[in-house]
Design a protein that fits this description.
mainly alpha, 4 helices, RNaseH_sf, about 0% strand, nucleic acid binding
Length: about 120
């Protein structure tokens, strides 16, 4: 039995936050922080340091970028919800039956009680 799962939790969280979600088409980090996570090997290989000259402009551009990202994520989420609803409705929504007086129909009668119910007719 694996008892060191808590040691692997930071790596799993990093992987989850950096992976693109199929519904939003963005990673959770992009939606929350406005940028993609760099992988550990990218961090080891890069020697660049990001410098910001004007924090006000950086903040303004970051907020605008995050608004655009959030709006796109909303569009993608709505599209995915519509696709999933269509798929779900295809298997659950039935055509309306038009019953007429005198037609024979099946009536579902669920078994009740504590006795043996497996021999009870459920449809009468």
């Amino acid at each position: 039995m694996q008892d060191d799962w808590d040691d692997w939790l930071p790596a799993a969280l990093y992987a989850y936050n950096g992976a693109k979600h199929s519904t939003t088409n963005f990673s959770p980090n992009e939606l929350m922080m406005g940028r993609q996570l760099r992988s550990p090997n990218e961090l080891l290989l890069s020697h660049r340091v990001t410098t910001i000259d004007n924090y006000g402009e950086y903040h303004k551009s970051l907020v605008e970028q995050m608004d655009r990202t959030r709006n796109l994520a909303d569009v993608f989420t709505a599209q995915e919800q519509a696709r999933q609803a269509k798929y779900y409705d295809r298997s659950t929504v039935r055509k309306k039956e038009h019953f007429k007086p005198g037609m024979l129909v099946w009536l579902y009668k669920p078994p009740r009680g504590n006795g043996v119910t497996k021999l009870v007719h459920r449809w009468v």
